Every structure is written in structure tokens, then in C-alpha cells.
Amino acid sequence: MRLIANRIREVFELYGYGEIITPAFEHLDLLVAKAGEEVVKQIYSFRDKAGRLLGLRFEMTTPIARVIASNPMLPRPVRLYYIQPVWRYEEPQKGRYREFWQAGVELIGAECPEGDAEVVALTVRALQKAGLKGFVVKVNDRELVEGLLEEANVAPSQWVSAMRTIDKLEKRGESYVIQELAKLGLGESGARTLITRLNSLKGSIEVLSQLSSTGSERLNRGVRRLEAILSELKDGYGISNEVVIDATIVRGLDYYTSFVFEVVVPKADVGSVAGGGRYDDLIALVGGPKIPATGMAIGLERLIHAIEAENGAIGDYRVVEAVVIPVDPELRVYAARVAESLRSAGIRTMLEFGTRKLGKALERADKLGVRVAVIVGRSDIEEGVCTVRDMEKRVQERVLLDSVAEKVLSIVKSNLKSD
Amino acid sequence: MRLIANRIREVFELYGYGEIITPAFEHLDLLVAKAGEEVVKQIYSFRDKAGRLLGLRFEMTTPIARVIASNPMLPRPVRLYYIQPVWRYEEPQKGRYREFWQAGVELIGAECPEGDAEVVALTVRALQKAGLKGFVVKVNDRELVEGLLEEANVAPSQWVSAMRTIDKLEKRGESYVIQELAKLGLGESGARTLITRLNSLKGSIEVLSQLSSTGSERLNRGVRRLEAILSELKDGYGISNEVVIDATIVRGLDYYTSFVFEVVVPKADVGSVAGGGRYDDLIALVGGPKIPATGMAIGLERLIHAIEAENGAIGDYRVVEAVVIPVDPELRVYAARVAESLRSAGIRTMLEFGTRKLGKALERADKLGVRVAVIVGRSDIEEGVCTVRDMEKRVQERVLLDSVAEKVLSIVKSNLKSD
């Protein structure tokens, strides 16, 4: 997890995003804002000793929107990222537990499609850097879907319900969704036509041509925005193979206003590993001025599952580079000094306490994947030397104390992996 | 916070510790184990929808002890660290809110005093690396205090209460503590004598000489352990000026069995910034085998307060190194490409969207402390160049696209601060 989180953090910072930390729980009503009833049911809520109703955060966008709402003078666009746990009381699924970690960004104050493109691009780069390969970014625009609902004569007051229903296509299947949509004034044949229409809008940018110019202003706004984002992704970032249009993607949170996307890994059975979109009304809704914004979150456990499905288990972050082993407990002070000198040189060094035999200590170092063992023997102190052993090549040599750190560094560096 | 946390993380890893992540909440009874009644009152607890009584973790040692208890085959000693929030429902104090972050380590499976010395040494190094200067490490041993209670004829069943009372010396004052101790079978004069005795045991290692050889086995064990730790710290790690003995330090958590320490900053009014000790019984208590262990935690908000009290505000982690500014929205695609090339070279780069005037964009970059601005002008595209501006030296030059990343890197590197 740390390895993956660190790689993602690195990409977020490469795009100029700064970390924000928000509290784990807040007043329940402040957490909710415009999340959608489904998700609100999943909040862990409780009363504190003063009787206040609190809840554990179940996503990060609303708490961050509130920070922005109360600091409206921040120079915009504001670029923020987080890597934090959230909590949802739902049935545990593959890669999704009741506590799970999200790594995400919010780009606040950019109205242009280039902002959406930046968020998609850094998502793609972060997933690639984490080691994920076979993923697809499905993009859509809620205004496009709303335009189609408009054409089908669904009243605007029903759009939110319609979106929530369409969002269940993957989970509940088409016939369930058609049945539910039918109740919203569409009738069954209208609902069926709508779903057929949405399903036909999947693929490369050309699928949008069947919509252009014939539709409502709302529909056209959605189409133009998608076209602008896709072209910026292609020409500005060189990202095109990874992205497809899919008009059935609307995302489950009610606060999205136009562009939405999610990332799926066809070969891994874990649901979407990332998702996001534009939420131009949320900051005003939580008490701030109207500020356009777009964001995304990666589900870290799901991502790890997906990477493991591709590559097998993810190698552990190799913490310890060197171990210092006194062959006798009485040499411990001397060994501690040697270890300190290695640490001063920036080498991650573990100290053995001399309580196990040399052979056992070496065996253990091997198991931990430690590259270098520095062995301190009895006669070494007088001679001012110790033995430096390359655990991988299984060779060792006696080295003067002054040059131990240098020697260890040269072995450790010869092993640098590409990351 | 991130800057400080990263520096501390670096030190933990230098000592060969690996990160552990534990859940934010668990079954309430599993969190508590042997924490002490005071602290248990401060747990945020609630029932989930299945009626189970859960609690938010208020410290990390017990949850980690449980992980070890259920994985008794892990090769020992196990070295673990964490940098995580915990929650306590108490009156907010300076540097202590209801959610606060702890950065700590657990060294599990080392019985020798060299283990305690390692934990103290890495605490000292972590605090130094974080930038703290005027701190004092107060060390003590609960067996030493128990030995004195034994001599004063306090029944062993009262020792835990006595410890909790002595722990209040700082907060409630001597007369309160004497009054409370008197009730434990000591009488008032006995209590006064005990406190005088404890107060006389403050200072360098020599203060222990008044105890040696005359006391009980328990007392002597405490004395010998302290002596061994102090001598290892001095000879193995070169740490002696920062450490003093203080027999009134017993720590507030009931699970400590012998060595305890805390770190105070005399000039900053924030309580202790770090503390820890040995807890040889806790892992057995939570269902594992008997495994000796020692650990410590740093309170990050308190540490930051203390550092700020010494140095003024801590500089922000400077995230953005370069900004790419198209002078016109139509140059955005080209600007995005330039930004991507800088990121590929590892430069943290923010992209302007061309929606503000060049002057404004430069002003903003200045405010954010960005070192380099790369300006993309209209004629630049044809000529294959752009303008690289050193914001600090206020000089700029036109550079061929191929060498932009190199040029920006050379400016950013010329500015590397000592950390």
C-alpha cells in the first residue's frame, strides 16, 4: 500500500497539487450535502458525549468543498490532493472493505474543459505509475444524458432519480433499470429507447457525431465539452487509446453536474478503480460562492487488487538496506556506533542485538531481503575494521571503519530498481 | 505537517522500521485492553447498524499488539512504525485537539536494554530531524518506583493506583498527589517521604548511586536497566546531554511494565511532545504469547507547536517548482505538452489555462513561491522555443523546446535548501 500510495503521491505533486488533511468525523449534516440517498445510508454515525450527531467521512470531496467554501479568497485554481481512509457501512466486496483508502485530487476554480482533461491525465499517469496496465477510462457528460432525458420528455425534477437509476445498469442489469425508468414518466417503450440510445453512445469520439447539432442546447453543451476534453487529452497529453466514451456512465454521487468518468480494468473483477467528474454547484451548496470544480478519487485497495490480478502479488517496499550484526552481545556498543554511521550516510540500517548466532542472523537478513550485512567480530575493534557482506552476491570483505558507509552504499546502489 | 511527518518517517526507516496501518475503529473491548480508566473515558464509541459496540482508536500500541498477538510466528524482533490520527474526547489544549496525529514505533521481541536505547535514540534523531532543539528526554523505570512503593509497604494491588496518582504530579500538583497517595496505606507522612524520595532522583546517572545495592530485587532491576540504557545511549549513540533521570515520570497508560520516558520542551508550553516505554505483558494480555516489547509515540501537533515556539512558523512544503503559462488560451495544447515534458523530467509543474493575463499569472506564481515560469508565446510554436524565467533572480531567456526541462532543472536545483 505504501509503495503504491507513494508513487501516486509523486504524480499528484508532479502536477502541482498540494496535500490537504481533513478530520475523520464531522457534524453529520455537513458530511452529507448532496451525496445521494444510497451513500448516506452507509455513513457510520454516532453521538458524542455532548449529544452532537457526528459521522465518519465516507468520501473526501464534500469536506474539501467546505474548506474552500469557508476560504473563498484562496487564489484559484486551487489544486489539492489527499491520500486518506474513508468509511462506509456496506457489504464488504473484493477490494472494498468498510474502511478503505482513497487517493484523489480536487481542481477548484477552473471552468474550462482543459481542467477536466488535466484531472483525467493525472489519473491515467498515477495509475500507470502505480503499475496498472490494462485499464480503460470511460468518459461521459451528465448534460448529454440530461439532454436525452429532456428529449424523452422526462421532467427535470425526475432527472436526479433517473441518473441514480441509470447508475445501477452494471449492478442490477438492463431490465431492472428499464422497469424503474418507466415509472419516471417514460413508459416502458420510452425507457427501452433511452437505454438503447445510451448503449449506442459507446466508443471513440466519432459516436458523438450522431448527436451533434440536432439536439437541445443542453445536449450540445455536453457533446462539445466531451469533444474538447478528448482533443486536449490527445493533443496536449498524448492520451487517447486509454479513453472511450460511454454514455451509460453517470456516477453514483448526486453532486456531479456535467463531465464524469470512471476507470475500469476489464480483466480484474473489482468494479471501478477510480472515478470522478465536475461538480460546479457543490461549493455554493455547502455555503460558499459558486465556484466550478472537478475532481477524482482512486480506490487504493481496488487498485492493488487489479494490479495483483495483472502481475501477481506486489513486492513489498524494501525498507531495510543493511543490517549490523555483532557476533557477541559484548560488541553491541561498537555495533550501534557502526549502525549510526551508516544511518548518517542515509542507509536504512537495522541493528541486531547480538542475541542470536551469526548464521541465524544472516538467515533472517536474507529472509527480509536485506542487501548488505555488516558483521562486527571480536578482533575487529582493535584493528578498526568490520566485515561487509553482499547478501545477494554472497561475497564479503573486511573494510576499514572509515570506509564502511561508502562500501555499503556502493553495494546498495548497484541494486537500484527502476523505480 | 507533511514536511515534519516526512522527516520523521525518513528517520524511522533509517532505523529499519516498516510501516503498519491499522483500522480507525474496532470492537470497543479490543481497543481498551490495559489503557487505564482515565483514557477509556475519552474513547469515541458508537454502535454500528448491527448493534456492535465500536470505538475509534485513541492510541496505536494496543491495536498493534493485537496484530502481533494474532501473528506470533513473525520473525522477531519486529520493527514497526506508524504515522496516523487518533481520537480522544477531551478538552482541546494547546497542540492537542480531539483528532491528533501520532508518529511512533514499536520494537517487538527485544528484551534487552539495548532495545529501549534504540527506541530512545531514534526518538531523539526524529525530533532533531524535525527541527526541534531545546528538548529533554526524561527517563525512569516503573520497577524502580514499584521498589520504592514496596519499601514504603504499599500493597502490590495498589501499585497501579499509585502510578496513576504519581502521573498527576505535573497536572494536579504535589499536595493533591500526597493526599491521594496517603489513602493507599501510606499515610500522609509516608506519602510525603515517597514524593521527596522521587524528587531527589532527578538528574544525571549519578543520582542512582543513592539507591544501588541497598534496595529490593525489583528496585535493583529498575536501577540496572536504567544504567544499561543510559550507557548504551552514551557510548553507542553519542546521546547523553539530552537525557536525564526523573523518577516522577511513570506515564499515564497502565500497560507499561518497566522502562518509561517522555520528552519535554521547557521553553514551549505544550506538555510532553513524545513518550513511551516497555510493555512486556500487553501482547499476552490481548491474546498472544508473552513477548517483550517497547515503543514510543510523538504527538505531531504538539511537536509542531514546540518547533514554532522555537523558530516561528514552519515553512510550507514547497510543492510547485515550475508553472507553464500560455499567453493566450489558444496555446493551451502546446503549453500542456511543455508541462508534460517537464513532469517527465521529475519537475513538479503546474499548468495555467491561459485564462488570466501574463502579469497576473506571474504574480500568482510568485505568491505560491514557484521558482520557474515557462512562458509560451504565439511566435514560440513556429520557432520551437519558449521563455524560461527565473522568478527569484528575475531574469529570463528563450530556450529551445528540447532543452527546456534541462534549463528548468538547473534553476530549480540551484535553489535546493539544506533539507
Helix/sheet category of chain A: alpha+beta
| Biggest protein-protein contact in the assembly | A-B, 65 and 64 residues
Amount of beta strand of chain A: 15-25%
CATH fold-level topology of the largest domain in chain A = BirA Bifunctional Protein, domain 2
Which second-level CATH architecture of the largest domain in chain A applies?
2-Layer Sandwich
Coarse morphology of chain A: elongated
Helix count of chain A? Answer: 16
* Average pLDDT level of chain A: 90
The end-to-end span of chain A amounts to 15 Å
The CATH class of the largest domain in chain A is Alpha Beta
The CATH superfamily name of the largest domain in chain A is: Bira Bifunctional Protein, Domain 2
Structure description:
In chain A, helix 5 crosses helix 10, helix 6 runs antiparallel to helix 10 and helix 7 crosses helix 9. The longest helix of chain A has 27 residues. In chain A, strand 16 and strand 17 form a beta hairpin. The two termini of chain A are 15 Å apart. The mean pLDDT of chain A is 90. Chain A has two domains: 310 residues, 2-Layer Sandwich (BirA Bifunctional Protein, domain 2), CATH 3.30.930.10; 97 residues, Rossmann fold (3-Layer(aba) Sandwich). In chain A, 41% of the residues lie in helices and 21% in strands. Chain A has 16 helices and 17 strands. By secondary structure, chain A is an alpha+beta fold. At the A-B interface, helix 1, strand 1, strand 3, strand 5 and helix 5 of A face helix 1, strand 1, strand 3, strand 5 and helix 5 of B.
